[in-house]
Amino acid sequence: MAATSKGSRKGTMNGLPDWGLLLGSVLVYLFLYAPIAVLILFSFNSTRSTQVWSGFSFEWYGQLLADPTILQAFRTSLTVGVIATLIATVIGTMTALALSRHRFRGQSVADTAIYAATVMPEIVVGVSLLVFFVAVRIDLGITTIVIAHVAFTISFVTIVVRARLAGMDRSVEEAAQDLGASPVQTFFRVTLPLILPGVMAGGLLAFTLSFDDFVITYFISGVGSSTLPLKIYSMIKFGVSPVINALSTVVLVATLFLIFGGSRLLVRKDNT
Amino acid sequence: MEDRQIRERPARAEAAGRGVAVRLAGITKRFGDFVAVDDLNLDIYEGEFFSLLGPSGCGKTTTLRMIAGFEEPSQGEISVAGEQVQGVPPYRRPVNTVFQSYAIFPHLNVFDNVAFGLRRAKTPKDEVASRVADACEMVQLAGFEKRKPGMLSGGQQQRVALARALVNRPKVLLLDEPLGALDLKLRKEMQLELKSLQEEVGITFVYVTHDQEEALTMSDRIAVMNEGKVQQLAGPTTLYETPANRFVAGFIGQTNVFSGTVEAADGERTTLRTREGLRVEAVARDQASPKEGEEVHAAVRPEKVRFGGSGDNVSAAEVKQVVYLGASTQYIVELEGGGKLVLYQQNAFDATGPLEGDGVSVSWDAQNCLVLGG
Ligand SMILES: Nc1ncnc2c1ncn2[C@@H]1O[C@H](COP(=O)(O)OP(=O)(O)OP(=O)(O)O)[C@@H](O)[C@H]1O
Ligand SMILES: [Mg+2]
Questions:
Q1: Same structural domain for residues B231 and B278?
Q2: pLDDT of residue A4
């Protein structure tokens, strides 16, 4: 303890001077955020260049809105996101309830499987889903995208809702039943309102994941239907244009907005 | 010899010939191999303030939960208001519970909390409003209807829990240590309030507590439990004056216990000699009828031992400790024959008792020294 504080007072730790650490951290942040900052900046450039700044304009955002294929991709992403989120939130919440309310054999396996699903390599999920859809002969398209997105977002919803359930006092559910509420009434009048912040946060997370997903969707989207990330990828194949910058900026802002909203929900206190 | 009949506050319910509100017949509850409640037989009468009293883990909550329907008994039958409730879910039983943790709905305000049960019963809107208002009035929460539970003190939350249950006018109200979380002063206040409330509404209360003083203060009858079994079922005075066994004697109030061998037994009158050689004159009531040579325990309450005087038991002693308690003083004395004794003296007019180290004589009557069964 004494040695550590002495070490830091002298400005060294493991022989690195403080300014060295500082410089290192600054470089890390630059590396993380500078490309994104540049991307956003050049989405407002007034010429086609994505390297030379020549003035501010909304030109590329205008083009973005004028391109029907982009709007179509946006609509696809939105549709997939909303449907997949609704399904995943319902199933994920039910899974969370089942896992936290019942003791059964193989529970720890079931628990681990939920967590494992969140770190499953996307390429594996993508390939396996593709093989599956081909095997059961479902035509690739918007349906398969929705199914795939439901599949990989459920576990995230489950984890978020479970965290909320763990912090809930179960005696209020008994109190509800004691006061004449049937199990169904108890769920909708007491349990659901109390876990709602967790359910909504889980839903927002699911939507964000669905909206941003590239790898899995790439495998199972088929030819006709492409989501926004797939659209960006295909546009880049025809050369870099500031329209891509503009589109990426829109996706980024939307994502940040949802994530921020989700975390606000999670820390919100009980309606007081 | 005066007639030492115990004068119990008449058990109102029994006296009025009222019906049985809750009947537990041969109730046993096992959790795996563990027996939490062991062959419980109880009749709780309508309008009675009935307490389940016992140390932590003796099965009080489990018993209450079986009446409420949150646990099914492993054996035996429960009826509420004459109807068997086997397999009836909690939301269809004519009982309501005040939970130890209150279990107030945190997302609803006081009004909606109290109205919860009425709304489930599809009570008309204006009736809900008036009954909730009455209930809030009754527990002195009028004006708090719009508050969220997070903005209430512990005592106020306790009142919400009470109002929320009482507003449904259940046949039986189950209360699981409802005052456990309150500080001593508020506790005492609420005890009296609860008691008068119960008399006012006339609902049967089944009250769980591990606080003997609380049980004595409030109850018409008390079932003292230990390790899942009822040790004694009686009114407060009987419990205190004639405990059925050593456990009850030790659990209700303070007591001095003598353990020894019976030297002579003549009807009620029993003489025993302790291991230290002290001769103790005692009486054996109902349950216990000791034989000569038997090992028994006899108990005398601290306030029934006096300094000086004469009686069936007189012994020289040395004062070891003096503890001033305000209204009374507690003395611990060492008897000449060996063994310690606790006694209380009221500080009625002057507080001049013996001091530590003083040699004194103490005495107590055989009447008050009870041979304990079990
Ligand atoms: N669901 C359960 N599973 C296993 N054992 C249980 C369960 N519920 C209660 N018990 C056990 O049964 C015994 C009685 O529990 P109970 O809650 O009825 O005690 P209590 O008299 O209410 O005690 P306290 O005054 O501490 O609340 C305890 O030993 C407890 O560990
Ligand atoms: Mg308990």
A1: no
A2: 44
- d(CA A177, CA A188) in angstroms, rounded, equals 12
Domain housing B86: 12-246
The predicted pLDDT at position B1 comes to 37
DSSP string, B292-308: TT-EEEEEE-GGG-EES
DSSP calls for B77-120: EEEETTEE-TT--GGGSSEEEE-TT----TTS-HHHHHHHHHHH
> In terms of residue numbers, what domain contains A51?
16-57
Question: Who among A177, A179, A193 is closest to B168 (CB)?
Answer: A179
**DSSP category for residue B373:** B
* Positions of chain A with pLDDT lower than 50, given as ranges: 1-11, 270-272
Q: Is the pLDDT of residue B316 over 80?
A: yes
Handedness of CA B309, B312, B313, B316 (dihedral sign): positive
Residue A26 lies in a domain: yes
CATH code of residue B148: 3.40.50.300
Residue with tokens 């797939």: A230
For residues B139-167, give the mean pLDDT. 91
Task: Answer yes or no: is pLDDT of B36 > 90.
Answer: yes
State the distance from the centre of ligand 1 to the C-alpha of B61, rounded, in angstroms: 7
> Which residues from chain A sit within 8 angstroms of residue B95, using beta carbons?
178
Q: Is the pLDDT of residue B55 over 70?
A: yes
Q: Is the CB of B352 under 6 A from ligand 1?
A: no
Distance (Å, whole) CA B204 – CA B47: 4
Q: Are residues B173 and B258 in the same domain?
A: no
Residues A29 and A95 in one domain: no
A176 and A240 in a single domain? The answer is: yes
Q: In this structure, what token pair is assigned to residue A253?
A: 């802002």
Tell me, what's the pLDDT at A46? 86
Q: Is A192 exposed, middle or buried (0-12, 13-18, 19+ CB in 10 A)?
A: middle
Instruction: Report CA(B321)–ligand 2 centroid distance (Å).
Output: 36
Looking at the structure, tell me whether residues B99 and B230 fall in a common domain.
Answer: yes
Taking every pair of Cα atoms in chain B, the longest distance, rounded to a whole number of angstroms, is 75
Q: Tell me how far apart the alpha carbons of residues B257 and B242 are, in angstroms, rounded to a whole number.
A: 14
Q: Does B342 fall in a domain?
A: yes
Return the pLDDT at B279: 87
Interchain contact, A172 vs B90, CB within 8 Å: no
Nearest residue of chain A to residue B151 (CA atoms): A272
Distance from CA of A196 to the nearest CA of B (A): 11
The neighbouring-strand residues paired with A17 are A12
The DSSP H or E segment spanning A106 is none
B216 with B348, same domain: the answer is: no
CATH code (residue A102)? 1.10.3720.10
Structural domains counted in chain A: 2
Which residues, in sequence order, are bridge partners of residue A103?
Answer: none
Count other C-beta atoms under 10 Å from residue B192's C-beta. Answer: 11
Reading across the β-sheet that carries B306-307, which strands appear in turn?
B306-307, B359-364, B313-324, B328-335, B340-346
- Co-location of B69 and B167 in the same domain: yes
- Within this chain, do residues B216 and B264 fall inside the same structural domain, yes or no? no
**CA separation, residue B49 to residues B12, B140, B164, B205 (Å):** 10, 21, 19, 5
Please tell me whether residues A123 and A173 are part of one structural domain: yes
Write the residue with the smallest CA distance to atom 22 of ligand 1.
Answer: B61
Residue A45 is predicted with a pLDDT of: 87
- Judge whether B361 and B306 are in contact, CB under 8 Å: no
Atom of ligand 1 nearest to the CA of B64: 18
Judging contacts by C-beta atoms under 8 Å, the chain A residues touching residue B91 are 177-182
